[in-house]
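Hi there,

I know you've been waiting on this one. I reran it after we fixed the sequence typo, so this is the corrected version. Both the input and the resulting structure follow.
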Amino acid sequence: MEERKGLYKGLRAYAIFSMILTTLLVIFVLLNAGSVARMAQVLFLIKTQALQPVTASQLIDGSSAGLVSSLEDPYSTYLKPEVFESLNQNLQGTYGGVGLVITQEEDNRLVVVSAFKGTPAYRAGILSGDWIVRIDGQDTSKLTLEEAANLMQGEPGTKVRLSIWREGEGSIRDYEIEREIINVPSVEGQMLDHDSGIAYISITQFAKQTGVDFKKTLQELEAEGMKGIVLDLRNNGGGLLGTALEVASHIVPKGPIVHIVDKNRTQTYEAPGGNLNIPLAVLINKGSASASEIVSGAIKDTKVGVLVGETTFGKGLVQTVFPLNGGAAVKLTTAKYLTPNKKDINVTGIEPNVKVEVPAELRQEIMLTSPNVEKDPQLQKAIEILQQQIQ
């Protein structure tokens, strides 16, 4: 009897929901009769006149993508099922590809944010700021960000050709890169100098496991006598907001880490109070974006560390992925974030406390051999700052 009552309640709720949805659709059609009629005409002409055959599924995918593209936001996009699956694999930290973090600027230019350390793209020498003009001959200005990323991924052992334009070079250069399984160890740590107690920790992305790995690395280095840390966030293209908050909570004192501003409210995420009571220097550059800017912004505003290097990328927007029926999804920019001092860093980026440029002729070598104490001027300056603070 109770089960039957529950069933009746469920059917009644479903009927009310369906009635409300139908009413809203009718109102929408009445208010937008001209636009709806125009859309129906386009659908009719495609089905009856277009030479190229098209399925209902393709029409729905195209319509959905068109709706999202009307936002004119390079970070918002419709994800086909295969692209959404690929995105999920990336966030897990394992996938077949070349190892690049990319972004799409307002002119549809596909730009490299960073190359994960040790990956095929990293070894090939592809740098932050490189413009990917073509992927296997396809013009990237006609692709969405996710479509471009999907083209670069594939079975290990297969090759992909990237046509790259680099500032300062007079021509486009082709790179033929063999795909590999990309296992990105998001956190790596080591002691640089046991005598002074200076440790080095590199975070290459903010994946699901990064917060746990960061805490473990801190504990291991503390056991080795760590007295100061160089935290390398260079060429870290970002990742998960929750993971960035988790990492920052180990570092910054009790108080705000970041303010997330959406259409309806401002939500402040606070640190419970990190226990990192030793000198900290953070390396940043133009490849430091999104989640890495949340962490570096919190460190700068709370003054628990010194930022060394170059101005960051400037991606102060938050995207949310909404799964859809059939395995597809929509990724939308749903909020922007502000640093603890409520500074909006979108486009402008975060300025370092101590600006140190890397000579162009050394960028590739330093990227391939980091940490390179002998040749990396940013790392050298960070060590110098820590030595002064430890003494």
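Quick highlight: Residues 2-31 form the longest helix (30 residues).

Best,
R. S.
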